Amino acid sequence: MENNNLNNLPKELFKPLVRKEDTSETISKPSRTFGQEARRTLLKNKPAIISLILLIIIIIMSIVGPHMSEYGNDDQNLSRAKLPPHAPGLEKISWLGFDGTLTDDFKGSTVEEAKRKAIARFDNQEKFIDFKVKSKGNGERNSAEVEATYHVYDAKGMGDQYFWLGTDHLGRDQWTRLWLGTRVSLIIAFVAAILDLLIGVTYGGISGFFGGKVDNYMQRVIEVLVGIPNLVIILLMMLFMQPGIMSIVIALAITGWTGMARIVRGEVMKVKNQEFVLAARTLGTSNGSIIRKHLLPNISGIIIVNTMFSIPSAVFFEAFLSFIGLGIVPPNASLGSLINIGFQNLRIYPHLLVYPAILISLIMITFNILGDGLRDAFDPKMHK
Amino acid sequence: MARYILRRLGYMIVTLFIIATLSFFLMKMLPGSPLNAEDKLSEEQKAIVLEKYGLNDPVPVQYVRYLTGLVQGDLGISFKFDNTPVTQILLDRIGPSALVGFQAMVIGTILGIALGLIAAVFHNGFLDYTSTIIAVLGTSIPSFVFAGLLQYVFAVELGWFPVALWGEPEHTILPTIALAITPLATAARFIRTEMVEVLGSNYMLTAKAKGIGQAGRVWKHGFRNALIPLITVIGPMAVNIMTGSMVIEQIFAIPGIGEQFVSSVLVNDYPTIMGTTLLYAFAFIVIILIVDLLYGLIDPRIRVTGGNK
Predict the structure, then answer these.
(1) What distance in Å separates residue A339's CA from the closest CA in chain B?
(2) Residue B87 and residue A23: Cα distance in Å, rounded?
(3) Which residues pair with A132 in a beta bridge?
(4) Can you name the residues that pair with A106 across neighbouring β-strands?
(5) Which of A220, B24, B122, B226 gives the lowest tally of CB atoms within 10 Å of its CB?
(6) Backbone φ, ψ for residue A93 (5° rounding)
(7) Are the CB atoms for A361 and B140 separated by under 8 Å?
(8) Total structural domains within chain A
(9) Domain limits for position A151
(10) Residue limits of the ABC transmembrane type-1 domain (chain A) (predicted)?
(11) Has residue A32 been placed in a domain?
């Protein structure tokens, strides 16, 4: 019955609001520029901010990470190949997998046979293997099962050495190589994205700004280029050039800029016919400063978003190339080549695949979420 | 429309010609020779081999011969794989690739549509967030990482499937799932955005006012309208599947085109590399053409010939 109460309010409570000349026109909300609005929208987007923080951590780790471990990128030593992760402090908690042990199940017709298999598998170091009988068996084939835990570090007399993420098939420290690989992958992605940006914005900008015949010819060229699948060109370029960081960057840049060029052209065409450009022209501004001062700031949002999405796709292509053997050359590592090595050892040494796989997924996910966040931030409809 | 198709076909031929030319000359400029590994061959034997494959002729002659063969569907003879004609190799291997690719495409799209639909109907609810997370993971995680995860969990640990084997229908399950995750995520994301927009439109309100139940509204009025634009992402999805198939076939040992390409690269078998490249390019271009034409047919508002008026 609150409604009734409101209706029965005594009239004396109401006072006319005196209209004042100086207050009726004031804007109650502070006026914000587009950039400020965009920043506000982005900062409110929690997933995007978390992604940004994670990315910064990954970037910092890719710079500092390799120096945190005492082992270098190419410190090979076959006597310590394929060691499991062993980290100080964390080694006490066995389920985390940093205790420097290899664990596997072995089957046999009797417990003894299963144990023999385990011992043969684990370098015949019976003293350093703990057995846990899972099933006693009844004499039939593979009916008995034991779980064997092999203390590799102790067996090799390296109990005081710590390879935080283990070692690869040549005994190189996985921690060092993981972060060096991340560094290589990120450098390739950033450089390729910047090249995309430079070529695409220049090409699209010129095409859109001058229009007419220039635009027509430039667009025909793009139409043919877009028809050629990226993958085919990248693969051909990689076959032709010596594999390595530079050729991956070039192959990615050659194919990547067309999307950016098309978007920039469309946006420039939209903006260049608006009144403020006409005003600038009337005031005698040169083409160069119209492009720099009036057009670019207006299309910068879409350029940033597009660049943001081209980074994860470059990370993916680099990993893809390295994975099929056309990318990074040893001894250098990238996330793709580490994953490739991981696959070769998947059955027995899954730790070689797990960490690079997690890291590349994390990089891709965070870049995509951040890209989505930026797209929302630069979309005026999303500003509240 | 006929003019538009003709023009597109013209572009297609130009593009294929450029790719054929480009790959031919790049292969010619490559430092390695297919004879490098056979150190034991005498000079005379080498000359015979070069003569047999026509590698002694001047490059322009080889180029014309290659193009003539190409028009007739002859891609040359493989240097490494038992002297088989490349066309034969590709024909033998297209089956497995097409099977897994098609399965992945169909399953991924259908599940993706379902996921997107659920997300849109329960907009901003728990199911929406779950499906968004799946979509983000699906678009972000590279297919080969996902394949590794599947292989480790279902083949190595649980032992439900062989790690890498080809032959039985159940051997296609893991590779299909690994390939389907990208189209699934793409479709889910796309349908969700479209559906949220459609569900908020005025004609949905009219339908509600007429007394149509929620299921009827979502299905008859919403879903059909959201489905049309999905065709635009089918092209990119197919491209994704083809890229993914190279690594997936490698990982699961599927005797398909992608696996053939990777192994040809490793042994410098130029005719096979060029043949595979051309096949990929051809498939890409045809799919994109079909998608463009379908789009014009399904949605009459989009006039593909509009620009020519």
Answers:
(1) 8
(2) 82
(3) A147
(4) A146
(5) A220
(6) -95, 100
(7) yes
(8) 2
(9) 83-155
(10) 182-371
(11) no
Please indicate, yes or no, whether residues A146 and A258 belong to a single structural domain of this protein.
no
B148 in contact with chain A, both atoms CB, cutoff 8 A: yes
Burial class (CB in 10 A: 0-12, 13-18, 19+), A120: exposed
Closest by CA to B135, choosing from B152, B154, B101, B111, is: B111
Interchain contact B154–A (C-beta under 8 A): no
DSSP summary character for residue B160: S
Of residues B286, B241, B246, the one with CA closest to residue B16: B286
Q: Which residue has the tokens 């797209």?
A: A375
CB contact under 8 A, A320 and B247: yes
- What is the value of ipTM here, to two decimals? 0.75
Grouping H, G, I as helix, E, B as strand and the rest as coil, residue B77 is strand
End-to-end CA distance of chain B: 12
CB contacts of A227 in chain B (<8 Å) are 11-12, 14-15, 285, 288
**Residues A135 and A221 occupy one common structural domain:** no
Boundary (domain end) residue, out of A125, A155, A185:
A155
Q: Residue B74 contacts by C-beta under 8 Å, 6 or more apart in sequence?
A: B85, B87
Q: Which residues of chain A have a Cβ shorter than 8 Å from any chain B Cβ?
A: 223-224, 227-229, 231-233, 235-237, 239-240, 312, 316, 319-320, 323-326, 339, 342-343, 346-347, 350, 353, 357, 360-361, 364-365, 367-369
User: Per-residue pLDDT for chain A (384 aa), expressed as one digit of tens each?
Assistant: 455 666 777 888 888 877 776 666 666 677 777 778 888 888 888 888 899 999 999 898 888 877 777 666 666 666 666 667 766 666 666 666 666 677 777 777 777 777 777 777 776 666 677 777 777 767 677 777 777 777 776 666 666 666 666 777 766 777 888 888 888 888 988 998 999 899 998 888 888 888 788 888 888 788 777 767 777 777 777 777 777 788 888 888 888 888 888 888 888 888 888 888 889 889 988 888 888 888 888 888 888 888 888 888 888 888 888 887 777 777 778 888 888 888 877 777 777 788 888 888 889 889 888 888 888 888 766 665
Q: Does B266 touch chain A (CB under 8 A)?
A: yes
Radius of gyration of chain B (CA): 24
- Which of A142, A228, A348 is the mutation pick for testing B, counting most B CBs within 10 A? A228
Residues of chain A with Cβ-Cβ distance to B280 below 8 Å are: 229, 231-232
User: Chain B residues with CB inside 8 Å of A236's CB?
Assistant: 22-23, 26, 277
Task: Determine the Cα–Cα distance for residues B306 and B309; give it in Å rounded to an integer.
Answer: 6
Distance from CA of A238 to the nearest CA of B (A): 10
Measured between beta carbons, the chain A residues lying within 8 angstroms of B15 are 224, 227-228
Are both A133 and A257 inside the same structural domain? no
Which of A224, A236, A353 lies nearest to residue B14, judging by beta carbons? A224
C-alpha closest to that of A172 among A61, A65, A72, A67? A72
CB atoms within 10 A of CB B184: 27
Q: Is residue A73 assigned to a domain?
A: no
Q: Are residues A284 and A243 in the same domain?
A: yes
User: What secondary structure does DSSP assign to A67-132, as a single string?
Assistant: HHSSS-TT---GGGTTPPPB-TTGGG-GGGT-BSEEEEEEEESSHHHHHHHHHHHTTT-GGGEEEE
Rounded distance between C-alpha atoms, residue A80 and residue A76, angstroms: 9
Examine residue A331 and say whether the peptide bond preceding it is cis (omega within 30 degrees of 0).
yes
In three-state secondary structure terms, B104 is helix
Q: Which amino acid is at B135?
A: A
